[in-house]
Amino acid sequence: MTFCNILSLLLLPFSLGIPIDTPMFEGNSFMSFPGIEGAARQLKFSMKFMVLKWRQNMLLLYNGQKTYPYRGDFISLAINDGHVEFRFDMGSGPGLLRSAKTFSLGIWHTVIIRRQLDEAIMKFDDEPAVKGYSRCCLVGLNLGLDLFIGGVDNFTAVDINKIGVSTGFFGCISRVSVDGREINLLRSNLNQRGIKQCKECLLPCEIKPCLNNATCIPVGKTGFLCSCAPGYTGEKCEAKIFGKRNNRTCLNGGVQSSASNRTCNCPIGYDGRQCETCK
Question: What is the pLDDT at residue 202?
């Protein structure tokens, strides 16, 4: 290890002795930064994030004008019912943009927001951009408070009915950029709570890929098999079985097959209609 490598490690924030280069949030965590300036007429920001635990409603970003119960402008980026939502209010009521697709566990997502007066456009990963408008008729956005990422220090100071969520984010945030300037998440924050080093390399079964109460069986470090509960089949046990095949069971980690000529897809080393035979 070179002197520069050692120096860079010494300069990184630490959590329990582990250097942090990508922050991980655990539901009650947050980071705060100086509030966004120059957003009165237009604003552009982007975020790269990865969800590590399934929760339907989580706050990714918030910047407001006044603390609740006082009314004021705000912007928020959140996950609501699995969809990414951007809300913005300039005093006439919030506008809402919602992604068509839901997030996936354990992979990096990118969201880009562009706002001009009362119009906003949101692009989530590679899906078509969605457009939305705030309510008539104010068009200036004033953000006087701190910018919060991954959660807020106190949800009682936020109008949760307007932002649509009441819990923080559970996952990693690797990049946030505002108006073309990337925020140094580790060295420019004003305050933080509960930040740890991101655990990017999840084992396959840690992201809970199997559905309908199926059992996930790891295969090496990158593979998995789903042992379906009675009545389900498919690679991830996503399909319901009707008829006599409902009562058949695969053994030794076999996966129930939807093919008509076969009951189970067997893992390496096993064969038979129910994967009962060791090769």
Answer: 61
pTM score: 0.69
| pLDDT for residue 261 is more than 50 | no
**With 70 as the cut, is the pLDDT of residue 249 above it?**
no
**DSSP of 141-168:** ----S-EEESS-S-GGGS-HHHHS--SB
Residue type, 267: P
User: For position 271, what pLDDT does the model report?
Assistant: 84
Pairing between β-strand 83-89 and β-strand 74-80 as defined by DSSP bridges: antiparallel
Sheet containing 83-89: give its strands across: 95-102, 83-89, 74-80, 57-64, 147-149, 30-33, 191-193
- Contact in structure between 276 and 252 (CB atoms under 8 Å): yes
pLDDT digits (tens, 9 = 90+) for 55-69: 889 999 999 999 999
Structure tokens at 224: 């998995």
